[in-house]
Design a protein that fits this description.
Number of helices: 8
Oligomer: single chain
Order of helices and strands: HHHHHHHH
Helix content: over 70%
Bound molecules: fe (ii) ion
Largest sheet: none
Number of strands: 0
CATH topology: Heme Oxygenase, Chain A
CATH class: Mainly Alpha
CATH architecture: Up-down Bundle
Length: 237
């Protein structure tokens, strides 16, 4: 019996590992295309912080709640619930608002309209409540946020702000959150495996597009990074 379970779990773990590696490569690719903070104007620095705030302040908890509603395994639910608990208990949206205010970068209508369509695309993806693809997207998101904090803090410093609670907290806690979501992914894939033809990276691709709009604003960027370097929509894992 034990060996039968082991035979079932091994392919799930190895598929999970492959997904994790693709997510990590997508994050690395995103960061390799980031501009140097020192090269940005005050307007560009402000725009990145405002658009980041316009997206994260009101949507992170909503999307993590979508992940909670979508997963079926008890382990994934417990991991996501702990993440949500921390977000609400420590008032992470309030931390982000303080960060934006201190950097003189509170979002305006214009900032919200710039991210509107890409944001809608992610919202509609979340609304489909597909467990594994949402967990893959949120693992990518947590990994991105953790690495983005040093860049964000540098932008805020350029704006004359010394407010660091949001960036300090997320540069640390999201390391554990990312690892937790990959454990949740393994648990969910074992209990609720996606169809072989399912595109597990759809949410990562949509979120990557949104994050690039946050960074690039109105500028026509030179690249649109494909989340896992895949030319097509199908999963290669
Ligand atoms: Fe947070």
């Amino acid at each position: 019996m034990t060996s039968a379970i082991h035979r079932l779990q091994t392919p799930v773990r190895s598929r999970g590992k492959s997904i994790q590696e693709q997510v990590e490569r997508a994050i690395d690719r995103f960061f390799s295309a980031l501009p140097e903070p020192a090269q940005l104007s005050a307007d560009q620095r402000r725009g990145i912080i405002t658009r980041y705030s316009a997206v994260l302040e009101g949507n992170f908890i909503y999307w993590m709640t979508g992940a909670y509603l979508a997963v079926k395994s008890n382990e994934a639910r417990a991991i996501i619930l702990e993440n949500l608990h921390e977000e609400v208990r420590d008032c992470h949206p309030g931390m982000l608002r303080k960060f934006a205010m201190a950097a003189h970068a509170v979002p305006t209508d214009r900032d919200a309209s710039l991210v509107y369509q890409d944001l809608q695309n992610v919202r509609q993806f979340i609304g489909r409540l597909s467990g594994v693809p949402i967990v893959v997207m949120m693992a990518f998101f947590e990994g991105f946020i953790q690495k983005f904090m040093a860049f964000l803090a540098e932008l805020a410093a350029g704006q004359g702000s010394a407010e660091r609670e949001y960036t300090d907290v997320h540069g640390v806690c999201d390391v554990a959150h990312t690892a937790g979501l990959f454990r949740a992914l393994d648990a969910e894939m074992a209990l609720n495996p996606p169809d072989a033809a399912a595109n597990l990276f759809e949410g990562v691709d949509l979120l990557s597009a949104l994050l690039q709009t946050i960074v690039q604003g109105e500028a026509q960027g030179p690249i649109r990074v494909q989340a896992a370097g895949r030319p097509s929509a199908s999963c290669s894992c």
